[in-house]
Amino acid sequence: MSSKRILVLDGHPAESSLSRLFAEAYAEAAKGAGHDARLRRLAEMSFDPVHEVGGYASNKPLEPVLEETLADLEWCGHLVLCAPMWWGTVPAKLKGLFDRAFVPGRTFDTRETTWIGMPKPMLAGRTARVIMTADTPGFFLRLAYGNAVKRQLTGQVLGFVGFKPVRFDWFAPASDPKPGKVEAWLAQVRASAARGD
What we know:
alpha/beta; 6 helices
């Protein structure tokens, strides 16, 4: 198995969370398996999450931490995003990171289009895994909501800029997991890390 460059993003805005636990476990196991892994924590990033302007012609200057995040995204061959689902989507600060850092000219190109007319992704050739915690059971997410958050992240966010395939782990219920459940989830996270996927 060849070594991979892996960016692990703890996308939870709090200092302590299951997402952080999974992100740290993944990064540690990936390094232990010989991969080059970098860990970033949303809670430690200071930036304005509000885009504010109505278009891409007048983007706000990116804060240093957003430039660093973009450099890491360009560096990596595989992205691991650990985040909770809140109100059917990702936390506001994580959405703000997408709004501010996923800018044209760095993550997608509006001057070039795909065969269906979509902007050309600039991070193609990379893969991703989303490790998401929630209290909504997976079957209910599928039946009642049509896997909305999964479709959004895999297609409209990560897939849009070039990450394909995007694998998805759904860990629920996360607020009150049954005894032994977190340990089982951690074992699953570490196994993915060892494989580099």
